[in-house]
Design a protein that fits this description.
Helix 2 runs antiparallel to helix 3 (61-76). It contains 3 helices and 2 strands. The protein is mainly alpha-helical and 78 residues long. A hairpin with a 5-residue loop joins strand 1 (14-16) and strand 2.
Length: 78
């Protein structure tokens, strides 16, 4: 994903994504990364799997795969 150019960068706080891009805190990429961090922080594999199954059911395969990709990136960070 890329920043959608919402023009909030001029008024909202800026954040740095795990890939180094700077976006506003309103950006969908920031929301996705926050969600991925939440999933990665879940204490058990069963909880992570259950959450991801719900994402797939409610948002579809593409959203599931994108979240899984970002969770993987977050998981690999030190």
């Amino acid at each position: 994903m890329t920043c959608l150019g919402c023009q909030r960068c001029e008024t909202d706080p800026m954040v740095t994504l795990i890939d180094g891009r700077k976006v506003c805190s309103y950006c969908p990429d920031w929301r996705l990364e926050c969600e991925a961090r939440q999933v990665a922080a879940m204490p058990t594999l069963e909880q992570r799997r259950a959450y991801m199954v719900e994402v797939q059911k409610r948002r579809g395969q593409a959203a599931y795969l994108e979240l899984a990709r970002i969770v993987s990136v977050v998981w690999k960070q030190p």
